[in-house]
Amino acid sequence: MDAGEESEQIDMTKDLESAKASAAATHVDDRFDGTSIMLHWLTVVLIVVQFTSVWAIKVVGDEGPLETMLLSIHLTCGMLTWIVVVARLVRRRYFAYLPPFPPSMPKIQQTIAKANEYGLYFFLLMQPVTGLARVLLRGHPVELFFWRVPALMEPDPAMRSLFVEAHEIGAKALMVLIGLHVGAALFHHLILRDSVLLRMLPRISARAKLAPVFAKKDAE
C-alpha cells in the first residue's frame, strides 16, 4: 500500500468515526426538551412523596399531630402535582418538543404507549380532586400549602364515601399504569436496547453514555 492509499484509508476511517459520533449526538438530541424532562421528574418525586405519606399515615394510625402533618404533606403534594400536570399538558400542546418513537417500534406498541400516557395524565389530574373533596367533606379545617384552610363544606358522609372510593380506585389504577410505564421503559432499554428510555433522561446522563465516543474523536 503506497502513501496515497494509506492516507485515503485514514481519511475514510476518520469520516466513519465522525459519522458515528454525529449519529450518537443526534441520538442524544432525539429526546424531549429540558423543561419537559424537568417537569416529568418533578412529577415522579411528587408521586413518590404522596404514596410514601399515605403509607406513613397508615403506619401511624392515630389522630395526632404527626398524622395531621403527613396528611398536609400528602394534600400539598397532590395539589402541586395537579398544577405541574396542567403545566405539562399546556407545554406539550404548544411549546414542547415531542421526539418520534423509534422507527423499529411497532404501531401497536406506540398506540399502547400513548394510551398509557394519557391514562397517567387523567388519573394524575383526578386524584388531587377526589382527594381534596374527601377531606373537605369531613367539614374540618385543612392544612394545605403550609396554611390552615377553614372548613369550607358541611360534613356529608354519604358524598364523602363516594369520593373516598373514587380516590382509592384511582390510586390503584395509577399504580398499575405507573408499573406498566416503568416496566415498558426498562424493557425497551434492557431488552430492545433502543432510545425510548434515554429520551426522558437528563441531558448530562445521556451525554455520559457517549463520553467514550467523543473522547476518542477529540484524541484523533
Can you put this structure into words, describing what you see?
The protein is mainly alpha-helical. It has 6 helices and 2 strands. Strands 1-2 form a two-stranded antiparallel sheet. The radius of gyration is 24 Å and the shape is elongated. The protein starts with a helix and ends with a helix. Residues 19-28 and 210-220 have low confidence and may be disordered.
Please give a handful of descriptors for the protein shown.
220 residues; mainly alpha; 6 helices; 2 strands; disordered C terminus
**pLDDT < 50 runs, ≥5 residues:** 19-28, 210-220
Outline: elongated
Strand order of the largest sheet: 1-2
Report the end-to-end length measured between terminal Cα atoms.
22 Å
Helix content: over 70%
**Rg for CA atoms:** 24 Å
Biggest sheet architecture: 2 strands, antiparallel
* Count of alpha and pi helical runs: 6
Structural class: mainly alpha
Proportion in β-strands: under 5%
Mean pLDDT: 81
Could you state the order of secondary-structure elements as H and E? HHHHEEHH
Number of strands: 2
Chain-wise SSE layout:
Layout (H helix, E strand, L loop, with lengths): L2 H27 L4 H27 L4 H30 L12 H30 L5 E3 L2 E3 L7 H36 L10 H17 L1
Antiparallel strand pairs: 1-2
What would a concise description of this structure say?
The protein has six helices and two strands; from the N terminus they run H-H-H-H-E-E-H-H.
